[in-house]
Amino acid sequence: MNGYLIFILALLIFNWLLSLIVETLNVRNVSTEIPEEFQGIYDEEKYAKSQHYLKDNTRFGQIQAGIMLPLTIAFILFGGFRWVSDLAQSISGHMILQGLVFGGILMLIGQIAGLPFSIYSTFVIEEKYGFNKTTAKTFVMDLFKGLLLAVLIGTPIFALVLWIFDTVPMAWLWAWAALSIIQLFILFIAPVMILPLFNKFTPLEDGELRARIEEFADAQKYKLSGIFKIDGSKRSTKSNAYFTGFGKTKRIALFDTLIENHSVGELVGVLAHEIGHCKRGHIKKSILISLISSLLMFFILSLFISKQGLYSAFGLENTPLYAGLIFFGFLYAPISMILSLLGNILSRKHEFEADAFAAETTKKPGDLIAALKKLSVDNLSNLTPHPLKVFLEYSHPPVLERIKALKTFES
Q1: Residue 242 lies in a domain
Q2: What is the pLDDT of residue 352?
Q3: Is 277 labeled as ligand-binding?
Q4: Number of domains present in the structure of the chain
């Protein structure tokens, strides 16, 4: 039997089993007793609701994984990829056009397969727990815009990579260089051209909140390019804030739900945390790590892109370059997982550092603690995740650990 096929199938099953074990441990780790830090913040009824929310999402995720795993394996074993490749070759004799058709059909299949799960998650689970504000129109428009962006951005990028690997010596290095430039360009334009397609960005109006934020930014010698309120409430009641872009397009975005539910002091604490990421160099480090990771990926890709065994594992007798790029994704999964683990470890460290920056500069760690508590309650967050779940998947430390660290600054 094909060694590549055995490895890929074993990896798919391993990932499913690992997820099953982790999610089972995570649900069993739930404590029915409200943690001391949340006494008086969480009432008994809402705390029980948060646990039901976790269990429903976990159960649904496992059902989805249990359906998608055999479908993926069947698609591989029964020649699904071969059929798509044959169809692409029947449509055009040009390799790049074949690749675009091949990738487009696979993307469409993936979208169709995932659509029922997305609908159920949004309109059943999120609706059940009072989070969903997404209308059918917004859902369809989001889907359409996402597909349109994937075509407009993904098509030329995929075509460029195919052309480089087909014609240029040391293709992996040139492909990495080209994609790195494109990645940085997209990061630069995303806040002003892409994100506004999904949310309305409104400059934060004059008032106490804006004055306090600007005062804090001036004190930290941080030049604000823009503070915006976004209409997150049109999709969900959940709250969030984030920093996006760099240079002249960097923006701080506050969900309207966040502004409604938090005091000015708490919001300044949240903004101080986001500014802390920038002041501590986390954004630049993340971009650099991403570029190095993609360099590694392209180098390893160059080692396998011409291996006949990889194509045979998916039922192809020839070695069309466009198919190799897709198949390599299955092969690269273990390395991707390891890099993700390392990335999450670093990300959790950065979150602690940003919290510390906020506590030290505002002199009011209690405001950020209060904000974290409210966010956890409003979003029905799991307060006691299993350590293995945190290690494998969490980009942020559990909220109780963050609160414990922040309390060291209270004195």
Answers
A1: no
A2: 97
A3: yes
A4: 1
Q: Is the dihedral angle over the CA atoms 171, 172, 178, 179 positive or is it negative?
A: positive
What is the Cα–Cα distance from 400 to 374, expressed in whole angstroms? 13
The yes-or-no answer on residue 142 being catalytic is no
Q: Which of 153, 379, 163 is nearest to 257 (CA)?
A: 379
- Domain of 68 in residue numbering reads as 3-199+279-407
Residue 217 in domain: no
Q: Give CA–CA dist 255/239, Å, rounded.
A: 6
351 carries a ligand binding annotation: yes
In a domain, 237, yes or no: no
Q: How confident is the model at residue 75 (pLDDT cuts 50, 70, 90)?
A: very high
Q: Is the residue at 328 inside a domain?
A: yes
The catalytically annotated residue of 355, 360, 367, 393 is: 355
What are the tens digits of pLDDT across the range 10-53? 999 999 999 999 999 999 998 888 999 998 888 888 999 999 99
Mark whether 256 is an active-site residue. Answer: no
State pLDDT tens for residues 178-235: 999 999 898 888 888 888 888 888 888 888 988 998 899 889 888 877 788 888 888 8
